[in-house]
Design brief:
Length: about 280
């Protein structure tokens, strides 16, 4: 399988608008791989786009993606869905106000996410309904597993009460990628699908030292309810016996540059950058 990390950043792009910190100044000057757009990836085997940050249209152009057959979301937080309108930018012929049929994108979602998607609105009502009615997308929902061409996809729920996020497991010809970029706590490590993956794509979790202004996370900080610490994430990866680990969703406030991350890498884990391609 071939995966492109379209964006390796997290909730905030790097450089964060207006920010004059060391990380953002360097990113502004040097661009990628120091600069990072929001969390999104593309699985080439089935032309599947995973998540649409606000800047997704530019990211697709930058990585020279030429066709999207499928779109899915891991969850509905703004940093993953704000760019949903890219389906209109791709498919609409503004001269006729009709969608090009050959550009229509299949929105592929687990049932529980599909049910929640209408909560995302514009002034015309739920975005998903408007896009479906106008032919930009067609919907395909599934329970927990779906086969798309040569790739099977398992959707494992991360139950977080009011919200829900999904860890996706992509498999092709005995190769396996576990994709868990955000909101992965509590990680469903009891599930057999996540054991011994060839590649785990995951958020590194909170870095507790080296933060700007010497910030320290209080023990009851809200981020601790959604994120593991970096050390806990490494332990998790070891417990599920991931053969390789690729860290994504790298946050500006962790105060680390591309070079800082490179210096931390090991034989097992590395840090993604925008446009990075991995083969499994
Ligand atoms: Zn900054
Ligand atoms: Zn996120």
């Amino acid at each position: 399988m071939r995966l492109t990390v379209l964006g390796s950043g997290g909730c905030m792009v790097i450089p964060k608008p207006l920010c004059q910190c060391r990380i953002c100044r360097e990113a502004r000057k040097k661009g990628a791989p120091y600069a990072r757009a929001g969390p999104s990836a593309f699985l080439h085997d089935i032309n599947l786009l995973i998540d649409t940050p606000a800047e997704i249209s530019c990211m697709l152009n930058r990585s020279r993606i030429r066709h999207i057959d499928y779109l899915t979301f891991t969850h509905l937080d703004p940093d993953h869905v704000e760019g949903f309108r890219m389906v209109e930018q791709i498919t609409l012929d503004f001269r006729t106000w009709h969608a090009y049929p050959e550009k229509q994108i299949c929105l592929l979602l687990p049932e529980e996410l599909s049910q929640r998607l209408p909560s995302i609105h514009s002034q015309y009502g739920p975005l998903v309904d408007a896009y479906e009615n106008r032919g930009f997308i067609r919907r395909k929902t599934f329970e927990s597993r779906v086969q798309i061409g040569p790739v099977s996809i398992d959707a494992l729920p991360v139950d977080r009460g009011e919200q829900i996020a999904f860890v996706y497991v992509f498999q092709r010809a005995g190769r396996r990628i576990v994709y868990a970029p955000c909101d992965l706590k509590p990680f469903p490590e009891h599930r057999s699908e996540v054991k011994r993956p060839d590649l785990l794509v995951v958020q590194p979790g909170i870095f507790e030292s080296g933060l700007r202004h010497r910030f320290e996370y209080p023990v009851d900080h809200i981020s601790r309810s959604t994120l593991y610490t970096f050390e806990e994430t490494l332990e998790l990866a070891a417990r599920i016996e991931a053969k390789k680990v690729l860290f994504v969703h790298l946050e500006e406030y962790w105060n680390r540059s591309y070079d800082d991350y490179r210096a931390m890498e090991s034989d097992v884990f590395s840090f993604a950058y925008d446009g990075m391609q991995v083969e499994v």
